[in-house]
Amino acid sequence: MANRTCSRRARSAAVRRATASPDGLRERAQALIWRLVGELSPPPGTRTVHLAKLPPPLDSPPPPVPAGWVRVQRTLEAPAQPGSAWAGLVAHTPLRQIDPITPGSTGSTVLPAPEPGIDVAEFGVTLVQLSGTTILIVAVAEAAWLPARTPAEHLDPAAFGSVTIAAQRWAQTRVVTRAFTAQADISSLTAIINSGTPAPAGAVAGLHCAAVATVYILRFTPRAAGGRSAVVTLGACPHAYDITVNGKQQPSLWDDGKLRMAVAALVGVH
Question: Considering just the CA atoms, what is the radius of gyration of the chain in Å?
Answer without folding.
Answer: 23
